[in-house]
Design a protein that fits this description.
The complex is a heterodimer of chains A (about 325) and B (about 260).
Chain A: H1 35-57, H2 63-70, H3 73-105, H4 109-124, H5 127-135, H6 137-140, E1 143-147, E2 153-158, H7 159-162, H8 165-190, H9 194-202, H10 207-237, H11 249-259, H12 264-293, H13 305-325
Antiparallel strand pairs in A: 1-2
Chain B: H1 3-10, E1 17-26, E2 29-39, E3 44-48, H2 55-62, E4 70-75, E5 78-79, E6 82-85, E7 88-91, H3 94-101, E8 104-107, H4 119-129, H5 135-148, H6 164-176, E9 182-186, H7 194-209, E10 213-217, H8 221-227, E11 230-235, E12 238-243, H9 245-250, H10 255-264
Parallel strand pairs in B: 3-10, 3-11, 8-9, 9-10
Antiparallel strand pairs in B: 1-2, 1-4, 4-5, 6-7, 11-12
Classes of the chains: A mainly alpha (about 325), B alpha/beta (about 260).
C-alpha cells in the first residue's frame, strides 16, 4: 500500500540522465503493479475454498437431512409465525417510536420526561424478561377496563382471554422495539435542517402537513438505514417468543430437535438459512426504499444492481475492443 | 403574459405593514430597541445596516417567526400573532398564525427549498396544503409563476440540481404562490456567487413594478438606489434614519449612516 520508509527520492538527489527531456506524447499512464495484493487475495481465496469444501463434504452437517427438513410444514408454519410476529411488531414498534420521538421533542416537560423514562426503562430490561413478565401479566391484572381514571369502568376485558400467546409476543416485542425506534426517529427528525421547519412555517403550511410532507420524508433518509438495522435485530429477536410458548421458526426447529435428537445440526442449519433469506430480503427492500427517499438529496440516484451490471458489461465490452485494437 | 397570470397579479392587494414599538431581546442582549415603521401599500422598502444590527430579526418578527418581547406588528390593520382583548394583547393559536403567514411572503437567504420535492411541487405545495387550490390548479399556477421567474423548463428538476440563483428564483415563485400582500426578503442574494446576483435582483425588480409591497434586507446598495422607494438604516436595534434613497444614500444626515456607507460602497 504505502512505500517502505527510506526510499523517498528527493528532487535534488534524482539521478541525472544524459537524455535531454523529450516532450512526451499524451498517453495513458501504466497502472502500478501490486503483487502484495495478489498474494493476499490468493491466500484468502484458498481459506474460503477450504471452508466451503468442509461445509459441503463434512458428514456432520447432514445436508440430506437439511433438505428433508427445509420445507417441512412444521418449519413453514413456524416461519409464518416468525413473519407475522415480525411484521406486527415492526409496524407497531415504529408507530410507537414516532409517538415517543414526538413526545420527546415536544415543548411539554411532562411528555418529554415520560418519553425519556419509557426509553430508559425499556432499553434497560432484557427482552426475554419483558416477554416472560407479560406472559405472567394476567396473574397481576386479571381484568383490563376502560373508564374514568380512578373512577367507574365502562367495560372490561378478561385479561387471560385477550392475551393469547401471539398477543403477548407482539406486545412484548413492540414495547421493546418502540423504545429503540423512538431514538432512531428522533435522530432522523433532528437531522432535518432547521431552515426546513422555518420555510414550512413561513409558508403557513398546516402543522400536520409540515410533519408528514416536509419534515418526516426528509428524516426518513436517516431513519431507514438505522431502522432496518433495528428490524434485522427484531427478526432474530422473534426467536425469543419460543419462551412464551409460541412456535416460531426457531421454536419449531427446537421442538423437532428434541423429538429427533440426531437432526439437531441440520435443523439449526435450516433455521440459519431461513433467517439468512429473511434478512437478505429486508436488505434488498432497504436498498430500494433508500433510493426512493434519496430523491433530490443527491444530484443523481444511485444505480440499481441491474443498471450497475449493464454499465459494467458495456465498460468491459469497450475495454476488450480497445485492447484488441492496440 | 396570459390572461390567467394577469388575473393572478391583479387580485393581489398590496398590504400596509405597521411595526409598533417593537423590542426584542435574547437574555440581556437587546436586538431591537423600539422600532416603529410604516410601510405603505406597494412601497418598496430596503432595510440597511451593519451585521448584528437587528435587520433580519425585524423581518422575522413581521411574519412572527420570532415573537417581539414588547410591541406588535400589523398587516393591513390585522394584528400578527396576537389578538386584542380589551386593552391587552393575547397570543394567537398556532393554527391562526399559520393562516396569517399565508398573507406574508418570506424569502430566505439560504433559499430553504424542500429538497425532496420537485421545483413544481415546491411552488405548488402551499396553495394545496392550505386548501386554496386543487392539485391541478395549483400546478398550473406554479407553472405560470416559474415561467415568470424564467424557469419554465425546470419544473421537474429537484432543487439541488439547480444553481443558487435558480434556487432563489424558485423560492421567490414559492413565496408569491400564495399571492401575499407583502413579501419579505432576508438578504436574498448574500448566499449567491457574484455572477448570479443579477438574475435574482431582476426578478425582485419585476415584483417591485407589479405593485406588491416589498421589504428587503440587503447589502446591494446599487439595487437599493435603483428600486427602493424608501431606505431604512438600522443600527444597534434602532432606526437611525429613513427616507428616499437619494437622501439616505446620497446625503446621509447621521454619522453612523455615513460610516456604514463608506465601508460598503
Amino acid at each position: 500500500m504505502s512505500e517502505p520508509p527510506g526510499v523517498t527520492v528527493t528532487f535534488a538527489e534524482a539521478p541525472k540522465t544524459d537524455d535531454p527531456p523529450q516532450p512526451l506524447a499524451a498517453q495513458r499512464v501504466l497502472p502500478l503493479r501490486r503483487p502484495g495484493r495478489w498474494i493476499v487475495t490468493a491466500v484468502v481465496l484458498i481459506v474460503v475454498a477450504q471452508f466451503v469444501h468442509g461445509l459441503v463434504t463434512n458428514p456432520f452437517y447432514q445436508w440430506d437431512r437439511w433438505s428433508y427438513w427445509f420445507l417441512r410444514p412444521t418449519i413453514l408454519d413456524g416461519l409464518l409465525i416468525t413473519l407475522q410476529v415480525t411484521v406486527y411488531s415492526a409496524v407497531l414498534g415504529l408507530a410507537g417510536g414516532v409517538v415517543l420521538a414526538l413526545a420527546r421533542l415536544s415543548k411539554s416537560p411532562v411528555l418529554r420526561a415520560v418519553s425519556w423514562t419509557y426509553v430508559w426503562v425499556l432499553r434497560s430490561i432484557p427482552l426475554i424478561v419483558v416477554l416472560i413478565f407479560l406472559y405472567n401479566f394476567s396473574a397481576l391484572y386479571q381484568t383490563l377496563s376502560v373508564g374514568i381514571p380512578f373512577g367507574p369502568a365502562f367495560f372490561s376485558f378478561d385479561e387471560s382471554r385477550l392475551a393469547t400467546d401471539m398477543v403477548v409476543a407482539v406486545v412484548g416485542l413492540s414495547l421493546n422495539e418502540a423504545a429503540y425506534a423512538a431514538e432512531v426517529v428522533r435522530g432522523g427528525i433532528l437531522s432535518v435542517d432547521q431552515g426546513q421547519h422555518e420555510a414550512a412555517a413561513a409558508l403557513g403550511l398546516p402543522k400536520g402537513y409540515q410533519f408528514r410532507r416536509i419534515v418526516f420524508p426528509q428524516a426518513l433518509r436517516s431513519i431507514v438505514p438505522n431502522y432496518v438495522n433495528q428490524l434485522i435485530g427484531l427478526i432474530k429477536g422473534t426467536s425469543l417468543v419460543f419462551y412464551v410458548s409460541l412456535l416460531d421458526l426457531f421454536g419449531s426447529a427446537q421442538t423437532m430437535g428434541s423429538t429427533y435428537p440426531g437432526d439437531i445440526v441440520p435443523l439449526l442449519l435450516v433455521v440459519t438459512v431461513w433467517y439468512l433469506i429473511l434478512t437478505s430480503v429486508v436488505s434488498v427492500i432497504q436498498f430500494y426504499v433508500e433510493r426512493h427517499y434519496a430523491r433530490g438529496a443527491t444530484r443523481g440516484l444511485p444505480p440499481t444492481p441491474l443498471q450497475k451490471l449493464r454499465t459494467r458489461l458495456t465498460d468491459l465490452g469497450a475495454r476488450v475492443r480497445r485492447e484488441a485494437a492496440v | 403574459m396570459s390572461a390567467k397570470t394577469r388575473e393572478a397579479r391583479a387580485d393581489v392587494e398590496a398590504a400596509t405593514v405597521e411595526v409598533h414599538g417593537v423590542h426584542k431581546w435574547y437574555g440581556t442582549h437587546r436586538v431591537l430597541d423600539g422600532i416603529d415603521l410604516t410601510v405603505r401599500p406597494g412601497e418598496v422598502t430596503v432595510v440597511l445596516g451593519p451585521s448584528g444590527s437587528g435587520k433580519s430579526t425585524l423581518l422575522r418578527i413581521i411574519n412572527h417567526l420570532e415573537k417581539p418581547e414588547i410591541g406588535y406588528v400589523s398587516v393591513n390593520g390585522e394584528l400578527i400573532g396576537v389578538k386584542r382583548q380589551g386593552e391587552r394583547l393575547k397570543e394567537l393559536s398556532e393554527r391562526a398564525i399559520l393562516v396569517q403567514r399565508g398573507r406574508i411572503g418570506f424569502v430566505f437567504q439560504n433559499f430553504n427549498l424542500f429538497p425532496h420535492l420537485t421545483v413544481l411541487d415546491n411552488v405548488a405545495a402551499a396553495p394545496i396544503a392550505t386548501g386554496r387550490l386543487g392539485r391541478s390548479e395549483a400546478q398550473e399556477l406554479a407553472r405560470e409563476l416559474l415561467g415568470r421567474v424564467g424557469l419554465a423548463d425546470k419544473t421537474g428538476a429537484y432543487p439541488r440540481q439547480l444553481s443558487g440563483g435558480q434556487q432563489q428564483r424558485v423560492a421567490i415563485a414559492r413565496a408569491i404562490a400564495l399571492r401575499p400582500g407583502v413579501i419579505l426578503f432576508d438578504e436574498p442574494t448574500s448566499a449567491l456567487d457574484p455572477e448570479l446576483v443579477g438574475e435574482v435582483l431582476a426578478v425582485i425588480k419585476d415584483l417591485a413594478t407589479s405593485g406588491t409591497t416589498l421589504v428587503i434586507v440587503t447589502h446591494e446598495i446599487g439595487f437599493a438606489r435603483e428600486v427602493a422607494d424608501r431606505v431604512v438604516f438600522i443600527d444597534g436595534g434602532r432606526i437611525v434614519e429613513q427616507g428616499p434613497p437619494a437622501e439616505v444614500l446620497g446625503t446621509p444626515r447621521h454619522e453612523r449612516t455615513r460610516d456604514f456607507l463608506s465601508k460598503v460602497l
